[in-house]
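Last lecture ended with a question: if I hand you only a sequence, what can you say about the shape of the protein? Today we answer it with a concrete record. The protein is DUF4345 domain-containing protein. Below, first the input exactly as provided, then the predicted structure, then a couple of comments.
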Amino acid sequence: MQRTLTRVLLVLLGVVTAATGLWPLLWPLGFYQDFPGFRHGWVSMDGAFDEHLIRDFGALNLALAATLIGAAVIGTTAVARLAAVAALLFAVPHFGYHLGHVGHFATIDQVMILSTLALSVVVPLVVLFVPGRREVRSATP
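The predicted structure:
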């Protein structure tokens, strides 16, 4: 069984991932122009608009969010670890790409981009390595 920490991390990562998925799926041009919403358009500064690609990014984020939140609901350590691996399969290459492609952003944006993407790697790593809770078996049947 999962520890409470594991469930909280899965749900938090799932909710953030769902929000990051809904926006580009429902309003791809707005996501392209305005993400993250409180600074300059990070996506638009990195290349041309491609509605198909942005909608696919949104849909895949929603699928990952469902996996993360579903893992928290199911509650087993094995499913939590599988969800963490799925999150890492997305987060590590995404973080790696941005490590080499932030030079055209202002310093504050570089720090925010890389720190938030680093968190998207660290959180699933924590989930992956938090030991499961031992089930206490009763000595009486």
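Comments.
1. The CA atoms of residues 11 and 69 lie 5 Å apart.
2. Residues 4-129 form one domain.
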